[in-house]
Amino acid sequence: MRDPQLTVVIPVKLGGALGREMRGALLRLCLVALDCQTAPRSAFEVVVVDDGSDLDLDALVGEFARRHLSIRPRTIRNTGPSHGQTAAYNAGIDAARGRHVLLTTDDSMLAPDCVAAHLTAQAGRMAGAYVCGVERQYVYGVLFRNISSGSLHPRGDLAVRLFGTLLGFADIREAAEQLGFTDWTITPADVRTRFAELYRLSALTPSFADMYEELRSDRTDLRWLSVRMGNHSIARDALLRIGGLDETVPGGNSDQDLGLKLIDAGVRIELDPRATSILIEHRRDPRAFADGSGLARLAERWPRPDVLNLHAFFSRGYGRTIASYRQILERA
């Protein structure tokens, strides 16, 4: 069989009742979105990397595919316990048969023409580049315990309130109820028939909009901050040449480390607005917002002003912008 042109890599870890319920629902939506791609089935493959799930993820994905999908994802498993998202990406890249890899996440839904857009970009003027698509956020997904069934987290959930605070909400649950957004469920059928509407209902938050504005500009000094895995593609060999992703950098900051490695290796970082997707926000462990180990590791690896001051960038939460960070560096 002829090898595909592109491999979609999805790191997955389903653990605990809450993780299995919401992340399982998100994974199904992610796979259905990939099943809706307009690109020929022979042009791409899907590799799901099981990073230590506490269930048989291969059986779950296989059964879902047999019942609901025309694609047949491959599931591979990191050896031993969970090694983290970065190691899972590397395992997927190693296993990829495609010349290019598209690094996505299990909480992202790629638009029907997203894979085709990446294939076109990588075969055209963006050949050799790290190609970034445009991802909008379904922010009210954070309210749901299961976004497909519509079950919600308990009122007052600390992690949900913290996420809302980072977006500027005094009470995101109350705001959502007043606007009717607690009815905004997403089912596999919605992904197949209403993707354009779901994309329109999603938000381009300030930090995401700023990343894309940065990539549209001629500025290159902080372009590495626009690397955010979810809807990005690159030649597999280019990633292997720079050693893949650094597994010593915690997953929350592996995007920035990859961006720095790409720039250091002379790989262009480009925007293709035709490649679109939706990121479904979901409840995260509050401790993840306070973990500074990734920034410390970045500072150790890249001891330069634009990295050493990253705490000032991330302290602004979801309202952070590269433009404002540039001003901070100019004043420093």
UniProtKB/TrEMBL annotation:
Pfam families named in the record: Glycos_transf_2
The name this protein goes by in its record: Glycosyltransferase family 2 protein
CDD domains per UniProt: Glyco_tranf_GTA_type (cd00761)
Stretches assigned to the Glycosyltransferase 2-like domain: 27-135
Lineage of source species: Bacteria, Bacillati, Actinomycetota, Actinomycetes, Streptosporangiales
Highest taxon listed in the record's lineage: Bacteria
